[in-house]
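Hi L.,

As promised, FAA hydrolase family protein:
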Amino acid sequence: MSHVFTPAPVPAIKVRGTSDTFPVRRVYCVGRNYADHAIEMGHDPDKEPPFFFQKNPDNLTTDGVFPYPTQSSDVHFEIELVVCLGKGGADISTEDALDHVYGYAVGLDMTRRDLQGVAKKMGRPWEIGKAFEKSAPISEIVPASEIGHPDAGAIWLKVNGETRQDGDLNQMIWKTAEAISYLSTLFTLAPGDVIMTGTPAGVGAVTRGDKLEGHVDGIGDLSVTVA
């Protein structure tokens, strides 16, 4: 059996300090997972169960460049802790969930906010605003075997040297283990799955030429230029 054309390369993320790469299967994103961000988006965080949307694996980019997308004039940054799974399964318990984590990274969920807003008003899916080319800049992965499982610590983003987002991992409504467990009741998770865990308040628009500098304590930094 042969393919009718050459398959695309498997998207992969570098593992810090090694020549290894982490092959990506799926990218899940947790929506409105920080109370202050939920409030700034006009929602009550106390009344919502977790919800998820997806980006495509090839939306991940590691070259430090975010090309401003077409069909949009309002593109926002969202700094996030990224969880990378080394084991999968369904109906994973909260107690066992962290055993499925291979490592962590720093990521940006870039969003065509104007197109997302139109989709929301029309009751349509968000992919047009979320799953576009190079919409998920990401740092190298740091293995959990080296740093454990961060559940507190600063998460921030600067734009052209000015702090725009400034939160703490302990402010997540659904913690990492809880998000993995809940997600595994909806999908059968597998090695190579990536979970973007949500963003703190302060999201805002970027323009061409902006330099974005993100940080998560215990994991590292991410630097991206808007092209």
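Helices lie at 35-40, 94-97, 113-121, 127-130, 144-147, 176-183.

Thanks again for sending the construct details.

K.
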